[in-house]
Write a structure and sequence with these properties.
single chain, about 130 residues, mainly alpha, about 80% helix, globular
Length: about 130
């Protein structure tokens, strides 16, 4: 209905697609979740009214479902992009994105890069206590 009312590339449609992705993810349907998140991403990337925070959250959603599907390389890429977007939107020392840092650390650790994972966790711990 929103797509008909606003057109397929309106940011409101992106929000609905992101919310549908969240619903599918919570129902244990990561493939359907990823499909909706990717559609939302296309809308968000075309938008000139979207905030960095909204984009960062969507990118984190994509990272989470990628990890759930066993795509650790993709998950790491989405987490890094999310982190970069958080930092651009809120600055480098904002505790809002501590969860993204911890999630990225988990993926990096799973890839066998323990030292890098520890640095990410230490940064998250520092931000979480500031």
């Amino acid at each position: 209905i929103r797509e008909e009312a606003y057109g397929p590339h309106h940011v409101t449609v992106g929000h609905v697609l992101n919310n549908l992705g969240n619903t599918y993810e919570s129902m244990g349907q990561p493939i359907l979740a990823r499909e909706h998140y990717l559609r939302a991403l296309a809308v968000y990337e075309a938008s000139d009214v979207l905030t960095g925070v909204q984009m960062a959250r969507l990118l984190r959603n994509l990272a989470r479902v990628s990890a759930a599907l066993g795509d650790l390389e993709g998950a790491e890429s989405w987490y890094r992009r999310s982190l970069e977007t958080w930092e651009q939107a809120l600055g480098k020392n904002n505790p809002t994105y501590v969860g993204t840092l911890f999630d990225l650390a988990g993926v990096v650790d799973s890839a066998g890069r323990t030292e890098e994972a520890e640095r990410l966790r230490a940064r998250a711990d520092t931000l979480g206590t500031s």
